[in-house]
Design brief:
alpha/beta, Isopropylmalate Dehydrogenase, Rossmann fold, 10-stranded mixed sheet, two-stranded antiparallel sheet, 40% helix, 19% strand
Length: 359
């Protein structure tokens, strides 16, 4: 029986990269006898244009009835002047909350072929392989009270950072379980010298760590972690942190690799249901021009296979195909070095090259 996967291509380059990821997902899944039934729906700005809301309840229900969700990107300047509560990004926050997607996993690995593409020196980034585990449904993005009040000259705004023990413990367990699959080291990032919320995180992380004596734990202040990511990124294996800090640090870790266009992510619920998406944005300036880099979306498809279907061989085959394509010298525009004179390939052609390497 075909497994149902909901496609949410979204805005900008989202439809282009999602289509290439779908093609690779289908081909790699077939290697392990998996067949997929894809159902495409709207999220973000395109949903606002069509239905007046960034995310409809019907879409949420279709996602709940599926095995996994593959998402492209949301947002763009077309919708920037809309009220915050109805902007495209609200669709992302809403689907995370509705589906209970509490754990965001963002791997950041520097492939040998792209060592020179990083803004950092090759000897600093060569061999970098880390995973940021970000709590996704709590913290300051969802905390109450929140809002604005007052008139010009006397305006005030409030957002509350709120976490309970259960939320901290479950994301910490995800991080430690992931570390056991990697190099057995977890760095907890916090601001406990200032924030009461972070003090709770330190206490709960220490308590959970007792169940994982084989995994080494370190605590790191968020400001010094931001510095160390640039200075000594190879020291990190798994980073676990809250919603706000994770949002910022995962993008910093991503740029160490050379391009946001290379990096996938998974957002997981209890039980393993997941939404998989590239970490890059909608890039409206290149949308529709066949210039986008689909490799982050393609590697998100690999995470989907590995996580949702335990198809580790198929996921590994995708990652190897991506590495082979890059090793052969093929580049999308975002992967070129300054001043480099090399022919670039477009979104569709890059997808074809990965498919050929996969075959």
């Amino acid at each position: 029986m075909a497994e149902k996967i909901v496609l949410l291509p979204g805005d900008g380059i989202g439809p282009e990269v999602t289509e290439q990821a779908r093609r690779v997902l289908e081909a790699a899944g077939a290697r392990e006898g998996l067949a997929f039934e894809f159902e495409e729906e709207l999220i973000g700005g395109c949903s606002i244009d069509a239905h007046g809301t960034p995310l409809r309840e019907e879409v949420i229900e279709k996602c709940r009835a599926s095995r996994s969700v593959l998402l492209g990107a949301v947002g763009g300047p077309k919708w920037d002047d809309m009220p915050v509560d109805v902007r495209p990004e609200k669709g992302l926050l809403a689907i995370r909350k509705a589906l209970g997607l509490f754990a965001n996993l963002r791997p950041a690995q520097v492939l040998p072929a792209l060592v020179e593409a990083s803004a950092l020196r090759p000897e600093i980034v060569a061999g970098v392989d880390m995973l940021v585990v970000r709590e996704l449904t709590g913290g300051i993005y969802f905390g109450e009270p929140r809002g604005r009040e007052g008139e010009k000259g006397d305006r005030r705004a409030l957002n509350a950072m709120v976490y309970d023990e259960h939320e901290v413990a479950r994301i910490t367990r995800v991080a430690f379980e992931q570390a056991r699959l990697r190099r057995n080291h977890v760095t907890h990032v916090h601001k406990a010298n200032v924030l009461d919320v972070s003090q709770l995180w330190v206490e709960v992380v220490d308590e959970v760590a007792k169940d994982y004596p084989d995994v080494e734990l370190a605590h790191q202040l968020v400001d010094s972690c931001a510095m160390l990511l640039v200075q000594e990124p190879k020291r990190f294996d798994v980073i676990v942190t809250g919603n706000l800090f994770g949002d910022i640090l995962s993008d910093e870790a991503a740029m160490i690799t050379g391009s946001l266009g290379m990096l996938p992510s998974a957002s997981l619920a209890v039980g393993g249901f997941g939404l998989f998406e590239p970490v890059h944005g909608s890039a409206p300036d290149i949308a529709g021009k066949d210039l986008a880099n689909p490799l982050a979306a393609i590697q998100s498809a690999a995470m989907l296979l590995e996580t949702a279907f335990n198809a580790k061989a198929a996921a590994g085959a995708i990652r190897q195909a991506v590495a082979d394509v890059l090793e052969a010298g093929h580049r999308s525009g975002d992967l070129l070095l300054p001043g480099e004179n090399r022919e670039t390939v477009g979104c569709e052609r890059m997808g074809e090259l990965v498919l050929a390497a996969l075959a």
